[in-house]
Amino acid sequence: MIVSIDVPRLNDSHEDFDTLFDFWHKVTHSEKSDVLFTFEQCSFLQQNAVAFLGGLARLAQYQGRKVIIRKATIRQNVKDHLIRNEFLCTLLDESKPEKKANTIPYHEDRRGDKRSYIKYLQESWLQSGWTGQISKELKELITQFVIEAYVNVFEHARSPVGVITCGQRFPNLDQLKLALVDFGVSIPANVRKHLSKPEMPAGEAIDWAFARGRTTKTSTMTGGLGLDNLKGFIAENGGNLLVYSGNGYASVKNGSFMTETRPTGFIGTLVQITLKTKASYYRLPPMTESDGDLF
Fold first, then answer.
1. Nearest-CA neighbor of 290 among 74, 174, 144?
2. DSSP 258-280
3. How distant, in Å, are the alpha carbons of 11, 142, 285 from that of 232?
4. Nearest Cα to 236, choosing from 255, 220, 217?
5. Per residue in 28-50, pLDDT tens?
6. Which residues contact 219 (CB under 8 A, 6 or more apart)?
7. Which tens digits make up the pLDDT trace of 243-259?
8. What is the DSSP code string of 140-158?
9. Is 15 helix (H, G, I), strand (E, B) or coil?
10. CA 136 vs CA 37, 127, 133, 191: distances in Å
11. Residue 289 per-residue DSSP state
């Protein structure tokens, strides 16, 4: 048997994320079926969709199923994009392109190689010339904010496919986007377990996780600073932050933070960060001391 995933045009509205979550439900509720990806209706894919679809393919393979990507169904402009960002090259085991234009390459990390991921963030995402007058020190600090979400996958989420990341620069929109996806234990599930509140709504659990100093670590080490500091930095500098985890949702937009419980979701977490690319300078929000160096 084969379960078919017919990929449409996907941006990053709620409806687009819901389509991705529907794909997850379709695949995970047909465990013995091979998975076929087709793209006849697809004219554009944002980085969140690329990361999610790649992770979904790896999840199916982890479960012992065959994954088929029908390359002949992909329109040329979409195919060119998926070659430049290394999605097709990685999943089909083909040679990587030399020129990547405005792409932040599709990246898989199953081992928790923190040093390698820091290098990827700093050299591929926050690369010189893409983020205004950003200093080396600020680049390291922004990286540290993101690293907590990455580390949580290996410490708490236990994602069977690790972390899948992809990004894109949109120079005409003054935007630099990065999406991280895992298919492990969600933030709401971890918070509920930590607080012994199994009925806690997902939106409230996400809100708890973003509060300053909050952590589900059981050691005496401090933690939980990364999400709050990332939230503050995004709000201060006119960026956007989206988090979908379980059926919980959080966003920072136009300087405002909100959380909610949604009717749809998936088992895992998707984080999307949008930074401005033409900012003349970046401002830092009030922060507490970090719980460790990048390394």
1. 144
2. EEEEEEEEEEEEEEEEEEESS-S
3. 25, 11, 6
4. 255
5. 999 789 999 999 999 999 999 99
6. none
7. 999 999 999 999 899 99
8. HHHHHHHHHHHHHIIIII-
9. helix
10. 41, 10, 10, 34
11. P
